[in-house]
Amino acid sequence: MELPVRLSKESRIPIYHQITAQIQALIASGQLSSGSPLPSIRMLSKDLEVSAITTRRAYQDLETEGFITTIQGKGTFVADVEESLLRSVKIKSVQEAMKNSIEAALQQNYSFKEIEEIFTGLIEELKTEKGEEKP
């Protein structure tokens, strides 16, 4: 099983943390459901082209936080995660994406007011596409 995890070697965020955050997001979004098998540390390391130590650290963090469980001789699986934890991961994931977008806009010398206008425009555009009424 190959996970849709994409790493950025240029990012200031450590690789193990990128792996952890993306697997959490896959679980929170329902793309990986409770009981789903995960690739072995060795296989995921090979797929992502990172060291087994890095992948082991990510898996250890995920297990400590209650997202995955390892069964000796059987493998690693998605745990039955509490709904409140899933909700907080979803919020954190969206906030991180928005923060990255805002930082990209600031690097292009947009003001916060201009960024807010762009954001508002995109929300209105998406509402129209989704058939929602304007407020």
Describe this structure as you would to a colleague.
This protein has 135 residues and is mostly helical. It has two domains: 15-81, Orthogonal Bundle (Arc Repressor Mutant, subunit A); 86-130. Helix content is 59%, strand content 7%. It has five helices and three strands. It has a three-stranded antiparallel beta sheet with strand order 1-3-2. α1 packs across α3. The protein is globular. It starts with 14 loop residues before the first helix and ends in a 5-residue tail after the last helix.
CATH architectural category of the largest domain: Orthogonal Bundle
Cross-sheet strand order for the largest sheet: 1-3-2
- Beta strand %: 5-15%
Question: What proportion of the residues is helical, as a percent range?
Answer: 55-70%
Measured on Cα atoms, how large is the radius of gyration?
Answer: 18 Å
Global mean pLDDT: 93
Task: List strands and helices in order, with pairings.
Blueprint: H1 15-28, E1 37-38, H2 41-48, H3 52-64, E2 68-71, E3 75-78, H4 83-107, H5 112-130
Antiparallel strand pairs: 1-3, 2-3
Helix pairs in contact: 1-3, 1-4, 2-3
